[in-house]
From TrEMBL:
Superkingdom field: Bacteria
Location of the FAD-binding FR-type domain: 6-129
GO molecular function: oxidoreductase activity
Record organism: Flaviflexus salsibiostraticola
SUPFAM superfamilies, alphabetized: Riboflavin synthase domain-like
Protein name stated in the entry: Siderophore-interacting protein
Pfam family, one: SIP
Amino acid sequence: MTRPHRPTTHLTVLRSERLTPHMLRLVLGGPNFGAFVDAGHADSYIKLVFDPEGRPYPEPVDVSHIRATETRDRWPKTRTYTVRTVDPESISVDFVIHGDAGIAAPWARAAEPGDLVQFMGPGGAWSPRDDAEFHLFVGDESAVPAIAAGLERLPEDAVGAVLVEVSDHPLPLPAPAGMTVEWLVRGPAEYSPAALADRVRSLDLAERGDVSVFAHGEREAVKELRRAFKELEIPRERLSISGYWARGRAEDQFQVEKRTEAGKI
């Protein structure tokens, strides 16, 4: 099957901001910003484009052409990130920083004003429903940018809960007065995919009326959440739920596994 042509957008790093010891924000803009078309969704995302190791391509990179003419091992690498904010002349993208592993996070940590950024997108499909009686946001560090963007779009009288599991250093999440924000800080404890699902089960969602759910994060944790929502009889159409990443998997393998039994949510 022929892949659709997906042009790349080319922006410039304007500045970087350290939000926590493990989260970094890059603000992107520059003379090409007019080419960026806002998707208009709270979960808007872009796919950053990186050259494959040992094979730099001339900029700007035509990803669709390379995929049509080169073998897979020569394709550029892509990494998916939420567009945290869209402003008149810039966007911001937040990166979770843990060690030197991976492609995107080390690049973001080393990025300087003037560096070129190439990406495909934006994509996205979800924004919170104004008519929901109870809004539930659930996720880990990787979901914080999308959760924050969703909270900013809630009506002032919104009621609900936010549950975020992090290793340390919670990030302030402004929310309407009727929204409770709870951070589940793991600290040195061993990671448990069931932690968020167990907390969700304690919320008495059956008594909350029309519930709208945004639940994203590590794949196995999201599978546990999916089981919990099924037990609680939350209708599928009220759920925005997916894995953003998987422990022990680079994004390339994670994306391939999405189409297998292991990747099903």
